[in-house]
Structure formats: C-alpha cells, structure tokens
Here is the input.
Amino acid sequence: MAAVPVVGTSCQDRMVFVVVGVTGGIAAYKAVHLVRLLVKAGHDVHVVPTADAVRFVGLPTWEAISRNPVTTSVHDDVARVRHVALGQSADLVIVAPATANSLAKMATGLADDLLGTTLLATTAPVVVAPAMHAEMWRHPATVRNVQTLRERGVTVVGPDDGALTGGDSGPGRMSEPEAILEAALAAAEVRTDLAGLHVVVSAGGTREPIDPVRFIGNRSSGRQGVAVAVAAAERGAQVTLVAAHVDDGVLAEASGHAHVELRRAGTAAELADAVVAAASSADVVVMAAAVADYRVAEVSPLKRTKESAPGGLALELVETEDILAGLVQRRRGDQTIVGFAAETPADGETLVERGRRKAARKGTDLLAVNEVGWSKGFESADNAVTLIDRDGAVVSTASGSKRAVADALWDAVLDVRRKRGAPLGGHAPRP
Ligand code: CTP
Here is the structure.
C-alpha cells in the first residue's frame, strides 16, 4: 500500500509584509504597477522611495496605491524608530527599480537614507530589479556590485534586453512587474499555485427557524471553512465565501482579503441558493459548512408558548436539500467537489470506514473526515482530518492549525485535478 503523506503545521502561503524600495530611475512608473499587484494579492505593502525617486513618482501616488503612509527620510516618525522598524518587520524587501548607484550603495552597505537603513536592518529575502543604461550595467563596478549582492543571497531579476529611454537598446530595461512579483514571492516562499482558479467555500453552520425567536442550529464556528477560504485566496485563487452564522471576529481575516467575495446565508435553503449560484462558474467547491439535515416543517409565525403546548412540544422535521449531493450531480467535467464529514466514532478505523461510505454515497472528489465530540473539533484552533478520494482511498492525513489543514486540503485538490487533467492554478493571472 502506498504511504500516506502526513502534513504538519507549516504555513508558507500567507500575507506578507513587503517593503518596496524605489530608487531614482524612469522605471519608477512601472514600480507603481508592481505595488498594485502586491496589494491586490493581499499583501501589506510599505513603499520606501529615495529622494530621487519622488522626482519621478510623487508620494501621494505611492500612498494611494500602497494604502500605507510613505516617507523618505530617517528623521520621520523617529518615535517608532522607523529607520530600522520597517526592515525588522519585513518578510520581503524588493528594490525596483534598482539604479546602478543604489546597487553600489547596497553592495557597500551605505545607509544615508531610509531605504539604506531598512536594507541594513532586515534579515528578510531581498529582491532587486536593476534598471539602467546598458553601458552602466556592463561596467565592471556594477558587475562586481551585482556579484557581491548575489553572493549575499540577494535575488536579481533582470534586467531585460530591449529599447532604453535614450533611444539606445541593450540589457538595462527593468523587468516587467509580473516577473518581479513572481520572483519576489518565490524568494519569500509564497505559493501562488491556485492563481487563475475560482473557488467557492461554504463555512459556518445553518440555523433552521422554529419560530421568530428560536432555531435549530449546530456548534460549527466556521473557523475551518474560513481558513480554507483564506488559504485559497493567499495562494492566488478568486474566492467566493458563503458564510452561515460565522462571528465577525472569525470572518475578519477573510472579509478583508482583496480576493474574497463574501456572501451570507442563514438557513440551509439560503445556503443552497448562494452556493449553487456561485458554483456555476467555479473550478472547485468546498462544502465546509455544517448544514442542517432537517428543518421544521411548519415555522410558527408567532412565538410558541407553553400555553399553546403545555407539558411538551413535538416538532415535525423534514429533510433539507443535500447541497453537496446536488453539486455532484450538476458537476461540470473539470469541476472538483469537496465535502467535509464530522463524525463521532470511537476509533480511527471506524472513522475512515464511515468516511468511505459517505464519500461513495455523495460522490465527492475529496471528503475531509474529522472526528468531533463534546470537547473535540468545534471552536478549537486546531483540527485533524483524513482526506478520502472518489475511490475511497485515503490520499493524506493532516493535523495542526486549521490553516495547515486547509493547505493540505488544497494540495490534495491540486493532486486530484492533476490526475484528471483539469486546469491547475499558478499560470493565468487573476482578473
Ligand atoms: N451537506 C450538504 N447539505 C446537507 C447536509 C450536508 O451539503 N443538507 C454537506 C456538508 O456541508 C458536508 C457534507 O455534506 O460537506 C457531509 O455532511 P454531514 O452532515 O457529515 O453528512 P450527512 O449527509 O448529513 O450525513 P449524516 O449526518 O447522516 O452523517
């Protein structure tokens, strides 16, 4: 039997704190697009232009595009020790464009401005995108400086060959922002393997009304579903998150993400409508929501009172629509449908067996089976799941934070899609 991969708690697909240093070259205008791409991808971007750079593109542009305050001097915001704080906080530093002068300063370790101090204070990966005239790029001084930076672990992107500002041509054009972004995210080990895919994730628990003040609900907090949505967005997907009664505190991480569209649902029927509508254009649907299996046959328009039901109350419950099974029936050829199954058996073998039967009954491409109980699964920050494919085979197990479990789930989804020849992410840019 093939070994089942076990996934731990690594977390590389995250929003990163990025410092973008901009030095004084005409390519500074292209760096505006780079900042925009980083912000759109959900990263926290801090632009540090040099004094020369703001002669090409002004502070208001950088502030508006990055959505963060921008200063150039080591004497600004001294109380917060900004001249080193930015470098210390950074997960990634990009210098684009990097002029010949700025490469020389970096190689020497000069720190006569905010970018210089930031670069000396950081231990984060540094990526530079040189831009200059071909002669300056070929000059032995620049060649030596670039070699020094490479030896120090700096990633150098480009420059590209082509027409330069003075009408001449040769190596010296700054690489395109998309290429710089890709290299920078790779240097910071941020994955973009779901880019270009539209995914729908349901989260939380539905509530079925009994009367205007009471409902039948469940204990799902929505944490696992929200983690699945955030993981997908940070790995590049366009996400529709359908949330049923998820606390705003739990939702905050997802609702603030540029690539998560949030829709809310209350009952199983509302969740069905929202998920089915969003699924029509989705590549992957993950049903992480705990959907009520039954609803009250007749919802009372008035509050039920003890006077109207003295001594006891019997409610007639009728089955709700099985949303997951319906999605499987309507599945387009290359769509991947994923379910969750919360089970309460006593031992692991029974858990997996029940998961297999449920996967077969529902026809899911993947089913994430997790054990729940009075003190297990719900409201906790951690989870443990076994992933079962369409043939009932256990493809992986994952445990750790709900985010780590979410990443393992997306890895398994990509494996399923790869095996079926369905389009993968990581190539097409997001709209
Ligand atoms: N599900 C659904 N619609 C329902 C009930 C469940 O789409 N009316 C989905 C859940 O979102 C989950 C999966 O089906 O992804 C399994 O849910 P679960 O409650 O474990 O399965 P049930 O079919 O309800 O089976 P049972 O409760 O009998 O174990």
Notes: The radius of gyration is 26 Å. The first helix runs from residue 28 to 40.
